[in-house]
Amino acid sequence: MKNKIAFVAVGQAGGNIGQLFEQKGYNVLYINTSQEDLDTLEKAKFKYHIPNGEGCNKDRRKAKQLVIDDFDQIAAEIETKIKSELIFIIFASGGGTGSGAGPMLADLLIDDGKTIGAMTIIPNPEESVKSHMNSYECFSELTQIPGLASCFILDNNNGDKLELNSRFVEDFCSFLDIPEKHKSVKGNIDKAEIIETLKAHGMAVVTRQKAQESAEVIKAIHNTPFAPIEGDRAVKYITASLSGNVRMADLEKDLGTPIDTFQTFNDENTICCVSGLNYPQTRLDIVYNKVSENKEAIKKNLAATHESTMKKDVNFLEDLEPEKKPATEKKPFSRRNIMSKYL
């Protein structure tokens, strides 16, 4: 699968996950507005610093503008460095560079005819209000991209973020290895079925569990590093290598009836990917509420940076300053529709 799937890691958090995939032998292109962040990726093969970027400090709009200004070169880097059937863009939803650039980059690459999925991260509830503002804005854009393939949404509320990253990459790579490592006279999963599973629009989860019974796997599916699955039983694919007494029918009974299932069997671990799920609205509502509950405090803090109690009837330099010319109105700058909707 290493010649069929590759990754574009955007921002620092994306880079952390990207390194784990590169260590597994997958092609990864690291993109960042911060040269300092890229310099920490000492063993990375492909790195690209967006010109004029010095980090975005959680400024999503700045990240978007930098990508717009340099998109042709970014697209060329992706085309030459990581040609693959399916590309996943990795980024944190609460940051600056990844949060701002991730959804727009996915949209633009889909418009260029590429098959693009996403891997992103929801901030821990204890993280800043700004992180939650960025996260909700990011998902507001991400969920509106109709051609997006599967979206894996890690939730930092589920534990230590580095441990969650590691567990996700291990489970995801185990899933990709199924066609080569898991063979059974009762049925097999081929590479095309893996790709088909990962192309499904909506949220996806993956888990690997040393289990003998279906109940253990079902529990693992609902206790993954990912955002919680909605209870609406909407699902497109369940693809699994089953072990012990684990049965696909039991998984369907819990998750819902998918459009199709792909299964094989092995004697060690059950590895399961569920895709075509609805986005985790219940979890995203918590993100929204965090911002909403602090709205008045945010307004107060913003106002405090502009208000002044200094006397306003003194202007010592007024007589010395030359007369200011009226500002000329800037002419609108036309860009492709996809870019314009992000600004």
Automatic annotation (TrEMBL):
Gene Ontology cellular component annotations, sorted alphabetically: microtubule
UniProt keyword terms in alphabetical order: GTP-binding, Nucleotide-binding
Ranges of residues in domain Tubulin/FtsZ GTPase: 4-180
Top-level taxon: Bacteria
SUPFAM superfamilies found in the cross-reference section: Tubulin nucleotide-binding domain-like (SSF52490)
UniProt record, GO biological process: microtubule-based process
Cleaved signal peptide residues: none
Molecular functions per Gene Ontology: GTP binding
Gene3D superfamilies: 3.30.1330.150, Tubulin/FtsZ, GTPase domain
Protein name: Tubulin/FtsZ GTPase domain-containing protein
Higher taxonomy: Bacteria, Bacillati, Bacillota, Clostridia, Lachnospirales
